[in-house]
Amino acid sequence: MICDVSGLAQKGTVMPSAVRIGTDLGFLGVSLFDPEKTMFEINGDIDLYKFFITADYGMSSWEFSRERFAYENSGSYIKAGIDYNLLARDPDLNVIYFGLKYAYSSFDESFNYSMTDPLYYDYAKEISKPGMSAHWYEANFGMKIRVWKDLYLGWAGRIKFAKKTSTNSTSFNTYFIPGYGLADSDSRWGFNYQIFYRIPFREKPPYKAKKLKEKVERDPESQPINNQQNEFDFN
């Protein structure tokens, strides 16, 4: 892969050609239709021919209460990584990719509950866990399809793994991690449905010209004159 990137750099193809900026439509739907949750995520990538440098930033809050307890969680997260484009020569710049990301989340959470004892008294307690953090990795696969001019729709499936959460002396375990989900497992599947807008910096390398050049180089009859000259050249 290092040799491949070096070769591309010499040809200028590894130089950034565009930035794609978007958001997660699924999170917008959750925020609109679930009064207990607010979620928002910004997605971006830099086009480096066969590779994409990717980054996500998101915020979330979740508050819910039941008969005798309530839970609150709010925080933000960032993810960064690299994707490999399986359709680097697609004329419409569609993308099918797989890649790896590192994710970090910081958040606060609290849990309060109440108890009623008919013989003695009512009891209520709140447990707060401020300044919590977690990090993990994500292996992802997905696509981004051009629907109109520089507008793209995409989806991504991902598995989140190797989760590590900061410790706290309180008596309840972390329930939810922004960007990760429920914290009861060290790995978790996720799915995103996204919309992007592509902002080009320059044109990507000419695909058809490159294919023609490769064909000429492979064709033994592409240089008949040179071969003939070499046959009679005794100097």
End-to-end C-alpha gap: 42 Å
Mean pLDDT metric: 84
- The outline comes out as elongated
Q: Poorly predicted ranges (pLDDT <50, ≥5 residues)?
A: 224-235
Can you count the beta strands? Answer: 10
* Rg, alpha carbons: 26 Å
Tell me the name of the CATH class: Mainly Beta
Task: Describe how the helices and strands are arranged.
Blueprint: H1 2-11, E1 18-24, H2 25-33, E2 37-48, E3 51-65, E4 69-85, E5 95-116, E6 122-148, E7 151-165, E8 176-177, E9 181-182, E10 188-200, H3 207-218, H4 224-232
Antiparallel strand pairs: 1-2, 1-10, 2-3, 3-4, 4-5, 5-6, 6-7, 7-10, 8-9
Main attributes of the structure:
single chain, alpha+beta, disordered C terminus, two-stranded antiparallel sheet, Porin, 4 helices, elongated
Plain-language structure description:
With 235 residues, the protein is of the alpha+beta class. It has one domain: Porin (Beta Barrel). Helices cover 17% and strands 56% of the residues. It is built from four helices and ten strands, in the order αβαβββββββββαα. It has helices spanning 2-11, 25-33, 207-218, 224-232; strands spanning 18-24, 37-48, 51-65, 69-85, 95-116, 122-148, 151-165, 176-177, 181-182, 188-200. It has an eight-stranded antiparallel β-barrel. A two-stranded antiparallel ribbon has the order 8-9. A hairpin with a 3-residue loop joins β3 and β4 (69-85). Residues 224-235 have low confidence and may be disordered.
